[in-house]
Amino acid sequence: KCLGLRLSEEEAQSMVSLVSCDHHGYSVSFNEYLQLVSLQRRKEPDEQIMIEVFRSLDPTNSGEISEEKFRKIMKNKEGVPEEDIEEMIEEYKTMMKLDGSKELVILYKEFVAMLQK
């Protein structure tokens, strides 16, 4: 979970088996954990790629996307649960000190920076 993943036990065992010497109990040493983090980070898109994806959804190049459009896009992505979408939006609102009194507009550079933390 600390890698931002929600895995089944089988998925977790599969990931751990990539780095762990213990193939029976699936324990992970600190060094093996660091290897796992490194492998996972290499699989994740970098900040610039994520900004480019947002830009492709922003035909006016305003640097922002509506909450409604963001929700629609995320709901169409396979494997993204509703609670994860809510969590991202709430974290963004907290980071930007927004109270919800008006329609949320996501400034995607700030949003991507939040995801990279």
Task: Give the helices and strands, then pairings.
Layout: H1 9-17, H2 30-43, H3 47-56, E1 64-66, H4 67-76, H5 82-95, E2 105-107, H6 108-116
Antiparallel strand pairs: 1-2
Helix pairs in contact: 3-6, 5-6
What report would you give on this structure?
The chain is mostly helical. Helix content is 56%, strand content 5%. The chain has helices spanning 9-17, 30-43, 47-56, 67-76, 82-95, 108-116, and strands at residues 64-66, 105-107. Strands 1-2 form a two-stranded antiparallel sheet. The longest helix is centred in the first third of the chain and has 14 residues, at 30-43. It is elongated and about 55 Å long. The two termini are 15 Å apart. 4% of the residues are buried. The model has no long low-confidence stretch (mean pLDDT 79).
Entry keywords:
117 residues; mainly alpha; two-stranded antiparallel sheet; 56% helix
Shape: elongated
Secondary-structure-derived class: mainly alpha
Task: Give the C-alpha Rg.
Answer: 17 Å
Low-pLDDT segments: none
Summarize the amount of helix as a percent range.
55-70%
Summarize the structure.
By secondary structure, the protein is mainly alpha-helical.
